[in-house]
Design brief:
single chain, alpha+beta, 50 helices, eight-stranded mixed beta sheet
């Protein structure tokens, strides 16, 4: 840089040697000179104003001043015993230097004021005598000298700062003087506590700070810069030099960044005093020039690793010559600081690199944010590559080979004396001794420099990890970097983690995520490093000067592991070449590394203790299992991989630890069973690969996987690969390991427990090819059941989860917290997932008992049978103390899933609904008696039903009319049951015969009768007799006379009454004769008789009474009329409550109840961000047809794996919008025409919710994926004032299980509990008042008042990035306007950008996908399986994104104190309806109501 410029070193030497010759007093004896100095200086000192008032100087001529300066010059060289005299000399000169100030002191002589620069240069040169070290002085006198030197340095620095008079010559003199005193103090070997040691840091800081001032006032010449560089090379054995160099460099770098990258670039935070280093007036160009020159000031820092080079100066040679034992120059004790100095130099360079990358100076490891406007990697490497690459090779094989080569070349030359180019110093060392490590002391061997090497390689890793998307790095830099990494990643025999290895792992978290060309050649080295760090519980760090946080180190290693987990299955049999070997003996294939990666992951999870690290490992584990399962389904399943076989001889690494979890059948899968299984899987894929569910029977879950375009010719390359790492083995091992650690270690940590349960839920959903042997299980019924042994693994997993719930519930009361109950709720949800995916588990008696016992524990707080031998307690005998209402709700939900959904989901309605799609209006359309025109309104349909409420939580709607499709009239009742878990439709008939025997009609064809005889028989005329004929012959007795005769009656009552009676008898006789005559002439007479036919079948039945009676709803309980608690009309005490349906608002309330889904619902918004886009309009504008050809083709593929495309017009589940969800939508012709209109959005991307949306659901949750367009903004603005869900539907706060307020009444009879009720049976009276438990209650509130959601629903974004760096400028706030669902109107808190969760997905050139997670800080923010920084295969991205979105939402609900599960909200809505529409009827009125027909 300065090769063509002359150095001023000779001038510095001349000034140093001739400083004492300046004074004429040197011609006289020392005693005479001392006396003159004492006399003159004392007199001059009295006029300075230090001890008395200052007076004007009496020196008025130049000659007088020069004579005095001769005296003072001599005085500054006096021995330190003359401290006071020297002090006076210093004071005089310091006062006189104020002549350069804007306001000189009054004591400054006039000649000096008139020509200040001339005299100042002489004074500065004379000061040299003060700094010359005195030999043999005591420590006290040395300290006195240091004090005076500090005074001079302070004065010179102050003068340089405030003087406006200094000319260029004075500046040069000042700089040369500072160089000279640094030379005389710092060039000699360091001696502790000498004047050089005490002044070292101060003289260097003054030199550098004044030099910076000179760059502004009088920029130093190239010769001056060359002299500074040469001088600094002689001071490199001083620690302070590198420290001050780093300090100045960082200050200059801070200013450089300000004007190079603008104010938006993150500012480098320096210490306050360092911020004042750079003068105010320094221009940008001056800053750049000064920064680069200072950077190159000390030469190549790697020279610090060579004591021979550092000790080449004449001062070290002089020490070696005078040493009594004849030591070499490089053996001086002060050189033992070189490793630390080297480390400090590398730290300084690393700090500058961090500044350019906008990394905080304290940042360690991965996960830190880099500035978008950062310079390119090439730019940084152009500046620092030489030093960093050389430092990274220090002590490595390449370095040793180069040293041997140099030594060999030097040995061929004749021994000669080496003449140093500067100052004529002579080195006595032989050339070959420069490379002889044997002569070095033990503290200077090359391994002592490992800390600096580690810093250098870590800095290189940071630079390469800062590569932007699409950025090109020069191949030469990549090659040198890979070589350096390979050298540093070599594992020692002791298997210890040294500083270099730790530094690489700590700063290389992103290396495999950046599309670096050829980075995979380092994969074996990194895997070997991970095998040392991650599986070791007590990691041994071999450190010297660097301190590492073991947790952070493991986290960085896990980050690397997560970025390479999918590589073996992605590249399969692709070979990995060894950089150091030209032969292919050590060549690996990617697939051969898979088992090692699995071992690392499993062992790391086994020993990990940090919660965040465990969370990351669990996400990686599910990724591995999911990827393996999908790979076998889509890739291996479609090929006849008969070439795959196992050969253990070629496997050189450690035995696979997965073998303990594998069966013999699993181990022999590849060799024996792949062909047949492949054919089976192919058939399965062909049957279920349809993307649209066209028929009702096709509602089984379709395949949501996409097969990557991979070659299937890799089977022959799989020799030597163990088969224990197939999907089945991973599933078994992962299930066992996670369950075991969940019980043993993780149960007390909320986040880890949730992550483990999320992983187990994910494992439950995996459908792994059958790979295991079959197991015969004999039940008590002696029926033979043959199932896979996988069922035993699943059964074991369910048992572990149930044990986990039992343990958590049994913990002492102080441990019961919100977090604990959150883990229990999550465990119930996980159990439900296992039972839904493996319904055969409920066929196992033990499993069923275990699950139901846990459900009972959750609902009631205790088990009926604590131990196997105990007598079980019945429900009415138990104290009901659930752990919390949340736990009870979760257990109740699991019980309902077991009874209603396991084995039956999805129903005929499809996964989009777990409720019946029929409502009153739909049923009435199919009634025979219903005129189609009359079924126009819901109110008219509701009028045909009778509504009752039972259990205070279930609404029964009864229709007594048979449906039109019923060909067999029977007493029929159609029920619509609206309960906490949905709406269900049932039709019941009262049949006297089973259906199998009811094929014979009840009314057979009339077989006919005999022909009647038309002969009319003669009716004999006979006299009617009232008494027998012989009655007159009987002798009457007294009793006979008790009955009066007609004459006696006539006499008694009168003849008029008798005549009336006779007239009645006569008239009746006449009427009877007329009737007989008419009958004889009628066609219905016996002579004209017709065949008899049976009466018409009864078509109308009052079946509601039968249903209610048969099901026990009309069995009224005995009540005490004197007890208010049992008064008529108290809902919990009534088996049946009648609802008044005449109110016009009843239909609206029923509709609101139906709009409350029995499942959770979430929405994910998908965006596509092209390179450089930062505004919401640009991003939304991507979803138009004109730009569809510019998409990444994998984006549309990912969308298809997220869910099922559904038409909003036909969809009955969650659509992403509250107004049109959970209802049957008709499709009139107009709507069909609207659907056929051409949209400006490509069909494969048109999922904005207007016509289509992506949808996925399971038994407990729904999720919609919406791709917003400009339509969403217009729609949201149009409907912002509307909403279908009222606030009271979203959040009810009444106490669901509240007891009656008058429960404490006395003298009441014990109520009879209902046997099959799932409701809490409330009892009254004093009989149980002492033992009655107080259950946990919800906060009371009036359910009729509209309430608002206390927490806004979580907004989840899925963002596809073409350029990874665009995530830093993603316009989250602006895009919220496109993501409204209609529920925001009922929330106290509107969605904020800070609360949104964003899943960024960036496609790498390799075809893999990089994940970035962004969300609100908090304990439960990030859910698994996706982890920040994870690299995914396209095969699994849709599945894992969906699981992560669902888990994020579940965690948010768990963390929300005011959240209520869907079935609780529905129950509260039912209670609200009861309160508004109940009819307080007595028993008689209720029965009478049943006999009234509906309208």
């Amino acid at each position: 840089m300065y090769s063509e410029w002359a150095s001023l070193s000779a001038q510095i030497t001349a000034n140093s040697c001739g400083a004492q010759c300046f004074s004429v007093l040197n011609k006289f004896p020392a005693s005479a000179g001392r006396e003159v100095v004492v006399s003159v200086v004392k007199q001059l000192g009295t006029n300075l104003g230090i001890t008395q008032n200052a007076e004007p100087s009496h020196l008025v001529k130049d000659e007088e001043v020069k004579w005095c300066m001769d005296v003072i010059c001599f005085g500054l060289s006096l021995p330190l015993q003359e401290h006071e005299t020297i002090k006076d000399c210093v004071n005089v000169y310091c006062e006189w230097l104020t002549a350069l100030h804007p306001q000189p002191r009054i004591s400054v002589p006039k000649p000096i004021c008139e020509d200040a620069n001339l005299y100042a240069r002489q004074i500065i040169n004379h000061f040299h005598n003060l700094f010359v070290p005195r030999q043999g002085e005591s420590a006290d006198t040395i300290k006195r000298q240091a004090v005076l030197c500090h005074r001079v340095l302070r004065t010179l620095q102050q003068t340089a700062q405030i003087s406006q008079l200094m000319d260029r010559q004075t500046w040069d003199t000042l700089l040369l003087f500072l160089l000279a005193i640094n030379e005389i103090l710092l060039a000699p070997p360091t001696v502790k506590d000498d004047v050089g040691d005490q002044l070292c840091e101060r003289v260097l800081s003054v030199l550098f700070e004044v030099w910076l001032l000179a760059c502004v006032r009088s920029f130093p010449s190239p010769s001056m810069w060359k002299t500074l560089q040469e001088s600094c090379s002689m001071w490199r054995h001083r620690v302070a030099l590198v420290d001050q160099w780093n300090r100045v460099n960082l200050a200059l770098t801070s200013r450089l960044l300000e004007f190079s990258y603008g104010p938006a670039f993150p500012q480098l935070k320096n210490a306050d005093e360092d911020g004042q280093l750079i003068p105010v007036g320094m221009s940008n160009d001056c800053v750049a020039q000064t920064w680069y020159r200072f950077l190159r000031m000390i030469g190549n820092p790697t020279a610090l690793c060579s004591p021979h080079i550092i000790s080449k100066s004449s001062h070290f040679v002089q020490w070696a010559l005078t040493h009594e034992k004849g030591a070499e120059t490089h053996q001086h004790p002060c050189l033992q600081q070189l490793p630390q100095i080297f480390l400090n130099a590398m730290k300084g360079i690393s700090s500058q690199v961090d500044a350019f990358l906008a990394l905080p100076l304290t940042a360690m490891g991965a996960g830190t944010e880099l500035a978008v406007a950062r310079p390119k990697c090439n730019s940084i490497l152009h500046v620092f590559h030489e030093w960093l690459f050389e430092a990274a090779h220090i002590g490595g094989d390449t370095w040793r080979q180069n040293r041997k080569k140099q030594a060999c070349e030097a040995s061929k030359r004749p021994s000669s004396m080496i003449m140093e180019h500067r100052k004529g110093s002579i080195s006595l060392s032989q050339p070959n001794s420069l490379n002889d490590p044997a002569s070095l002391p033990p503290t200077l061997t090359i391994d002592k420099y490992e800390s600096g090497r580690a810093e250098a390689i870590g800095t290189l890793c940071k630079i390469f990890c800062a590569k932007k998307t699409g950025e090109e790095i020069l191949p030469v830099y990549l090659a040198r970097f890979y070589m350096a990494l390979q050298q540093c990643l070599k594992i020692t025999e002791s298997k210890e983690c040294d500083e270099t290895l730790a530094s690489i792992l700590l700063h290389s978290g992103d290396l495999f995520r950046l599309d670096l060309d050829g980075i995979n050649v380092l994969l074996p080295g990194f895997i070997a490093a991970l095998e040392i760090v991650l599986p070791d519980k007590d990691l041994k760090l071999k450190t010297q000067s660097m301190a590492f946080n073991r947790t952070e180190l493991r986290r960085s290693a896990i980050n690397i592991l997560l970025s390479i987990m999918v590589l073996p299955l992605h590249y399969q049999a692709l070979p990995i070449r060894d950089l150091s070997s030209e032969t292919s003996e050590k060549m690996f294939t990617f697939i051969q590394l898979k088992s090692r990666l699995m071992n690392i992951l499993m062992n790391a999870l086994q020993v990990e203790t940090d919660a965040q690290n465990t969370h990351m490992l669990l996400g990686g584990l599910l990724l591995c299992v999911q990827d393996a399962v999908t790979f076998e389904e889509t890739d291996m399943g479609g090929t006849a991989s008969t070439h795959m076989h196992s050969s253990g001889g070629a496997q050189h690494h450690e035995a696979n630890l997965l073998s303990s979890a594998c069966s013999e059948r699993s181990a022999s899968l590849v060799s024996a069973g792949t062909a047949s299984l492949g054919a089976q899987t192919t058939a399965t894929m062909g049957a279920g690969s349809g993307s649209m569910r066209d028929t009702a029977s096709a509602h089984d879950y379709p395949s949501l996987t996409i097969s990557d375009d991979m070659s299937f010719e890799f089977g022959q390359e799989l020799e030597g690969v163990t088969t224990y790492d197939n999907a089945h083995a991973l599933f078994v091992r992962a299930t066992y390991l996670v369950c075991h650690r969940l019980i043993s270690s993780w149960k007390t940590d909320l986040n880890v427990s949730l992550a483990a349960l999320e992983l187990l839920s994910g494992l439950a959903r995996l459908h792994i090819r059958e790979t295991d042997t079959l197991v015969k299980i004999y039940e008590a019924s002696q029926n033979l059941t043959i199932i896979s042994s996988d069922a035993l693994e699943c059964k074991r997993a369910v048992k572990w989860i149930c044990d986990y719930i039992c343990y958590q519930c049994s913990r002492p009361p102080p441990a019961h917290s919100k977090d604990l109950h959150s883990t229990i709720v999550a465990a119930f949800q996980c159990t439900a997932a296992w039972l839904m995916q493996h319904p055969y588990l409920l066929q196992d008696k033990d499993c069923l008992q275990t699950v139901l016992e846990v459900v009972e524990l959750g609902i009631s707080g205790t088990k009926s049978q604590s131990k196997s031998g105990d007598i079980p307690k019945f429900k009415d005998e138990k104290e009901l103390k659930p752990a919390s209402m949340r736990v009870r709700d979760a257990a109740e939900n699991l019980l309902t899933i077991i009874l209603e959904q396991v084995g039956y989901f999805p129903s005929e309605c499809g996964p989009e609904s777990i409720s019946s799609l029929l409502d009153e209006l739909a049923l009435m359309k199919h009634c025979n008696s219903m005129v189609p025109a009359a079924a126009a309104s819901t109110e008219q349909a509701i009028a045909k039903f009778k509504y009752f409420v039972t259990e205070n939580s279930t609404i029964l709607a009864l229709l007594e009319e048979p449906l039109g499709n019923d060909q067999d009239p029977q007493p029929t009742v159609t029920l619509l049951i609206r309960g906490p878990f949905g709406r269900h439709a049932w039709t019941m008939q009262l049949r006297h015969l089973p259906r199998s025997k009811s094929g014979i009609k009840y009314h057979a064809i009339n077989p006919g009768r005999p022909i009647p005889m038309n002969d009319v028989s003669q009716r004999p005329e006979c006299e009617q007799k009232n008494f027998p004929d012989g009655v007159d012959k009987v002798q009457p007795c007294v009793a006979d006379y008790s009955i009066p005769t007609i004459d006696q009656i006539r006499e008694q009552y009168g003849s008029a009454s008798i005549r009336e009676l006779e007239a009645l008898l006569e008239n009746q006789s006449i009427h009877e004769k007329l009737a007989w005559a008419e009958a004889d002439n009628s066609v219905d007479s016996l002579s004209h008789s017709q065949e008899c036919v049976p009466p018409l079948v009864c078509q109308e039945f009052h079946a509601a009474r039968l249903f209610l009676s048969h099901f026990g709803f009309l069995t009224f309980e005995t009540r005490n009329p004197h007890n208010p608690a049992e008064a008529l009309g108290t809902p919990p005490q009534r088996p049946l409550i009648v609802l008044d349906t005449k109110s016009t608002a009843f239909a609206a309330d029923l509709d609101r109840l139906d709009k409350l889904s029995a499942r959770t619902h979430d929405t994910v918004y998908v965006f596509y961000v092209k390179t450089g886009q930062t505004s919401a309009q640009q991003i939304i504008g991507n979803m138009v047809e004109e730009t569809s050809h510019t998409y990444d083709p994998h984006f549309a593929g990912m969308l298809q794996t997220l869910g099922w495309p559904v038409l909003v017009a036909d969809h009955s589940g969650w659509t992403g919008f509250a107004h049109n969800s959970w209802s049957l939508k008709g499709t009139p012709e107009e709507q069909q025409q609207q659907l056929q209109l051409k949209s400006n959005v490509p069909s494969e991307l048109n999922y904005n919710g207007s016509q289509r949306v992506l949808y996925w659901a399971d038994v407990s949750s729904e999720i919609a994926f919406v791709v917003p367009t400009t339509w969403n903004l217009r729609y949201n603005s149009d409907t912002s004032d509307g909403g279908s869900l009222s606030g009271s539907d979203q959040l009810g706060t009444s106490n669901v299980w509240a007891r009656c307020e008058s429960e404490a009444g006395t003298g009441a009879a014990k109520s009879k509990p209902r046997n099959l009720s799932l409701e809490l049976d409330t009892s009254t009276g004093t009989g149980r008042s002492q033992k009655d438990p107080v259950p946990p209650t919800r906060r009371k509130g009036n359910v009729t008042k509209p309430t608002l959601l206390a927490q806004a629903p979580a907004k989840i974004f899925l963002v596809w990035l073409e350029s990874y760096e665009d995530y830093l400028n993603f316009p989250l706030e602006d895009l919220l306007a496109y993501t409204r669902t209609g529920e925001e109107l009922h929330s106290l808190q509107q969605p904020r950008a800070a609360d949104c969760h964003v899943i960024f997905v960036h496609s790498l050139l390799s075809g893999l996908l990089r994940v970035k997670l962004q969300g609100p800080p908090g304990r439960m923010s990030f859910a698994t399986p996706l982890v920040d920084g994870m690299v995914l295969s396209r095969r699994v991205v849709g599945n894992l994104v969906r699981q992560t979105a669902l888990n994020i939402s579940r965690r948010r609900r768990l963390d929300n104190d005011n959240y209520q599960p869907p079935h609780v909200r529905r129950r509260l809505k039912v209670q609200d309806i009861v309160q508004k529409y109940k009819m307080d009827l007595s028993e008689a009125e209720l029965l009478a109501h049943l006999f009234q027909r509906a309208i």
